Amino acid sequence: MYLDRAEEEDEKMAENWKGDADGILVFTGLFSAVVATFLGGTYQNLQLNPQNASVFYLAQLYHLSASRNGTTITVPPTVSDPTMFTPTTFTVWVNALWFLSLVISLTCALLATLLQQWARRYLRMTRTRYRAQKRARIRAFFAEGIEKYHVPWAVEALPALLHTSVFLFYAGLVIFLFTIHHTIFAIVLSWVAICASVYIAITWMPVLRQDSPYQTP
Predict the structure, then answer these.
(1) Which residues, including other chains, have CB under 8 Å from residue 24's CB and lie 6 or more apart?
(2) How far is CA 34 from the centre of its chain?
(3) Would you tell me how many other CB atoms lie within 10 Å of the CB of residue 127?
């Protein structure tokens, strides 16, 4: 009787873990692709454009050549010295937030894969072909290990990390749009503010109302 109920509980627990991991893997795959696409167009702003450097040095060579011939030529002010290049503060913040978002998202995918392995290993170790008494002791041993090493906390931490990754992307997107177009920035910022407000309300709702079905990690 004990083993039957224990195996049923273990099966439900493992299926819940696998279900959470599958959902996280699907979302992180799509989300990471989106973040990587945005980064592909912004990370280049962190370093000097080789074309600008080429234009500057060609202008300097032309200036030296003209000076030898007694001709005075002024280098256009639009040609900046590449040795003085520093990325803007907005560029650094946008890339930092998006890279951090991408790293956290990929970390969630890695942990979700490990979670699936842990679930399979747990079921394999607790369903050995021993006598009922020994199987019960083995199951109790591994069940105690799950609680001892806070595996349920690790499972609950995955959605929290994923939510953090999404909000970091939102923050970087808002800063990015602020430097591009103020109207689009205002529209997106309004929506992000609404989403953040709803998220905070859902987070506190179970504390204020015990019968609330809503919950966030």
Answers:
(1) 108, 109, 112, 158, 159, 162
(2) 11
(3) 15
The CA distance from 25 to 42, in Å, is 26
Nearest to 20 by CA among 127, 114, 146: 114
The CA-to-CA distance between both ends of the chain, in Å, stands at 35
Model confidence over 79-109: pLDDT tens digits? Answer: 555 556 677 888 899 999 999 999 999 999 9
Structure token digits, residue 100: 């951090």
- For residue 115, give the nearest of 153, 163, 167, 160 by alpha carbon: 153
C-alpha 147/C-alpha 80 separation (Å) is 61
Q: What is the pLDDT of residues 113-150, one digit of tens each?
A: 988 888 888 778 777 676 767 777 777 777 788 888 78
